[in-house]
Design goal:
The chain is mainly alpha-helical and 389 residues long. It folds into four domains: 79 residues, no CATH class; 44 residues; 175 residues, no CATH class; 41 residues. The strands form three sheets. A three-stranded antiparallel beta sheet has the order 1-3-2. The chain has a three-stranded antiparallel beta sheet with strand order 6-7-8, with no helix packed on it. The protein has a two-stranded antiparallel sheet with strand order 4-5. Strand 2 and strand 3 form a beta hairpin.
């Protein structure tokens, strides 16, 4: 850089136009060099000295200071790194304290555990990478489109199911998180992904429900909200997270797909009016597709006498451990301020009760209209008979 100090100015240089820096007490022959000087650390350093009331230093002295500072840096780094224990996650202010810690039995145990964790992590990453590399990238949509017969379609589906990756019971549906228990996984999905199970208080099979969703995402590669199909698990997860589809479509009442995991029998209306007239088009009795059970209007099932020995066994699935997990999840949902909101803006339970109330009110209005019509026509008797005088 063409720099001249004030003492070096000649008569010729004074006559020529000069560009100066009053802070560093230097002059420049061109405006470009002056602008470049203003961007340098030397100029900034002298500005700080000026604010502190000190004299500016020359460019050579500034270079010497920088060189001395860089020589001292490695020693500082060695000290700071030498007094930190990575295995125990501890830091020490003195070298002697660090040396005493390194010799201790607790430190040696921590180092052994730390090395084991490191090795297992490396192995996990290696196996995951090998799995990803070994997994063939197949365009299943194209394969299904090319299949011409039903046998070929079934063959493609079977191949897809066989090659698809299975999600474990404790593995998150939307990311790579893996919990120790199902409850820990559910808590992660609730807090991290705002995933809530609708009407969880009526859910009877939590494990089966979560396995069904896992298969839908991992094997079927289908979004659980919009039901859009993809080619891989990664693409499905990316779509769900990008679109915010970490939820179940439940606005129009229970979905037929997931209704098997619910039991709403406790919400059925028990107040049945015996005088209420039945719709003549209503099918009173229905028989199941197998032809072994008769379904009554109340919903009760009457089995064939041939299967009496099985009905007498009265076997029931034990939902007790799952009910505990469901109750805990329900409490967490309430604590987070989540309620099952339906299409009307009310909760699902409120919506159901409102529909029942509206049906009762409609029945009362119908009976009132019938009564008023009878009074008006003087025809309140069910079977009118003329009086003989």
């Amino acid at each position: 850089m063409d720099v001249e100090t004030a003492s070096e100015f000649s008569e010729q240089s004074v006559q020529a136009p000069l560009y100066t820096c009053l802070t560093c007490k230097v002059a420049f022959r061109t405006a470009d060099i002056q602008r470049e000087h203003y961007r340098q650390d030397w100029h900034r350093y002298n500005l700080k000295r000026k604010v502190a009331g000190l004299q500016p230093i020359s460019h050579d002295l500034f270079k010497e200071k920088i060189a001395a500072q860089e020589k001292d840096k490695p020693n500082e780094n060695e000290k700071s790194s030498g007094w930190n224990c990575e295995a125990c996650k501890k830091s020490f202010s003195t070298e002697n304290a660090y040396k005493n810690h390194v010799v201790s039995k607790k430190h040696l145990e921590s180092v052994a555990k730390f090395e084991k964790r490191k090795a297992s992590k490396k192995n996990e990453n290696k196996t995951d990478l090998e799995k990803k590399q070994s997994m063939p990238k197949i365009n299943w949509k194209k394969k299904l489109a090319e299949a011409q017969t039903e046998e070929e379609v079934n063959k493609v589906i079977d191949e897809k199911i066989k090659l698809s990756r299975r999600l474990e019971e404790t593995e998150c549906l939307f990311c790579d998180f893996k919990g120790k228990t199902l409850e820990e996984k559910m808590e992660h999905m609730t807090i991290e992904h705002t995933f809530f199970i609708p009407d969880i208080e009526y859910l009877v099979d939590l494990k089966g429900f979560m396995n069904y969703l896992a298969e839908k995402i991992a094997i079927g590669n289908t979004c659980i909200y919009c039901k859009k199909a993809f080619n891989t698990l990664e693409a499905t997860r990316k779509h769900i997270l990008d679109k915010g589809h970490q939820k179940i479509k439940y606005e129009e009442g229970p979905d037929l797909e997931i209704s098997d995991f619910y039991d709403f029998s406790s919400t059925y209306d028990d107040d049945v009016n015996p005088d209420e007239e039945l719709d003549p088009n209503y099918n009173v009795l229905t028989i199941t597709s197998e032809g072994t059970e008769l379904i009554l209007p109340s919903g009760a099932h009457i089995g064939h006498r041939e299967y009496k020995r099985y009905y007498d066994q009265n076997l029931r699935y034990n939902y007790e451990p799952e009910s505990i997990a469901i109750n805990r999840l329900t409490q967490k949902y309430k604590a987070l301020g989540y309620y099952n909101i339906g299409s009307s803006g009310m909760t699902i339970e409120q919506e159901r009760l409102a529909k029942m109330k509206a049906a009762r009110e409609e029945l009362r209005q119908y009976q009132r209209r019938k009564e008023m019509l009878g009074i008006k026509n003087n025809d309140l008797q069910k079977h009118f008979r003329k009086q003989i005088i």
